[in-house]
Design goal:
Layout (H helix, E strand, L loop, with lengths): L4 E6 L6 H12 L3 E7 L4 H10 L11 H10 L8 E4 L6 H10 L3 E4 L7 H14 L3 E3 L7 H11 L6 E9 L4 H4 L2 H4 L7 H4 L4 H17 L5 E7 L10 E7 L5 E7 L8 E8 L3 E5 L6 E4 L6 E3 L8 H5 L11 H16 L12 H19 L5 E2 L2
Length: about 375
């Protein structure tokens, strides 16, 4: 078995959902060993958390700059090889850039940066470094999303006509109506989250899913936001009309105030030969629609699925797999890339996907602020 890849973690301490998601994913295929971290800006909290998860504390650093400086003193055979950036959005760019400049591979939460300009700078830095850079659009790791992608690539839907993606949540609803609360949440603070809340946090996932599954690029969009309160600078709901190619159009709908909704990411793709539909809250079912036959349901683990889908399936048919497994598949693909092994280009989103995401986010804001006008993406 290949040796384990030495992994460092930035952020994700305490009761962070993202933190445990990444740690479990890293251990899933026995490909990584967590060797150090800065879990929190408070060093004592980082140390306490490391002890809580039974991680040696000799490489739990007081801050990010110290981590880089101390790791670079170690022999190459001992220092971290890859770092996972799980911090609030505004820290992604400076951390990722410095990591790349020092030769580390990077696994970064989305959005990759807070501005498109930063994303392009990061892309140049990654190109110069020649290291692996993954953006954790986690939902691309689901086996049936990968099956959807491979079926479309194989031409099973024929020419694509229409795309429809939505991501509905309700978690901000109890917060947004309280002035004090909405002023204290970092995702509603543009200094920490960037220029968008809803599209920057979840709408960008729906955008990525459209491009990942269809293989097409969104070329232009028209967006309408809802802020709910005049003193709130950040979108909490939005609808985006999109144009991909000349006769391929669609809609991306995202909301953080869809009362009662949990994690309602769903995508439907329609073509001349049929349609495909997938829903994140029921991830083991991929629905194939047809004008001339009955509804078909594809499920993970069966031999009729594509090699990419089967590679991301860990259990026999009928055993549910979920978000941890999806993230684990992304980490597995990154490990293959770091080791120089062959891998499918659908195994993990790259820095290019991160740049596209920031282009999308800024275009939605520009469209809304411009009076709901069409805006081109690069």
């Amino acid at each position: 078995m290949p040796r384990k890849i030495r992994l460092g973690i930035l952020g994700g301490g305490g009761d962070s959902l993202i933190g445990v998601l990444h740690r479990v994913a890293a251990h899933m295929f026995d490909s990584y060993e967590i060797v150090g971290a800065v879990f929190s800006p408070v060093h004592e909290e980082s140390l306490a958390f490391a002890r809580q998860i039974d991680l040696p504390t000799d490489r739990i650093y007081p801050d990010f700059d110290t981590l880089v400086a101390e790791e670079m003193k170690l022999p190459e055979s001992e220092r971290m090889e890859v770092c996972a950036v799980l911090t609030p959005n505004f820290l992604h760019f400076p951390m990722a850039k410095k990591l790349l400049e020092h030769g580390f591979h990077v696994i970064c939460e989305k959005p990759m940066t807070t501005t498109y300009e930063e994303a392009k700078i990061l892309e140049d830095a990654q190109r110069s470094a020649g290291t692996v850079f993954a953006v954790t659009h986690t939902y691309t790791g689901y086996p049936m999303v990968r099956q959807m992608r491979e079926m479309i690539r194989a031409g099973e839907l024929g020419r694509i006509h229409k795309v429809d993606a939505q991501y509905y949540q309700g978690w901000i609803n109890p917060i947004i109506h309280d002035k004090e609360k909405r002023s204290s949440v970092w995702r509603l603070d543009p200094k920490k989250a960037g220029i968008s809340s809803c599209m920057g946090d979840i709408g960008v996932h729906a955008f990525n899913m459209v491009e990942y599954t269809t293989g097409l690029k969104i070329r232009s969009l028209l967006c309408d936001f809802n802020y709910l309160y005049d003193d709130n600078q950040m979108d909490v709901d939005g609808t985006v009309l999109v144009r991909l190619d000349k006769h391929v159009k669609g809609v991306i709908r995202a909301s953080q105030v869809a009362t009662g909704e949990e994690n309602g990411l769903a995508i439907s793709i329609y073509g001349e030969k049929g349609g495909l539909r997938w829903e994140q809250e029921r991830p083991n079912f991929l629905y194939r629609l047809s004008d001339s036959g009955p509804l078909q349901v594809y499920k993970p683990g069966h031999a009729y699925n594509s090699p990419l889908s089967l590679d991301g399936t860990k259990l026999p048919p009928g055993h549910p797999e979920g978000i941890f497994d999806a993230m684990g598949n992304i980490y597995r693909g990154v490990a293959r890339a770091i080791r120089g092994e062959a891998y499918n280009d659908g195994e993990f989103p790259t820095i290019t996907d991160g740049v596209r995401g920031l282009d999308f986010i800024e275009a939605t804001v520009a469209s809304h602020k411009g009076g709901n006008i069409w805006v081109d993406l690069d």
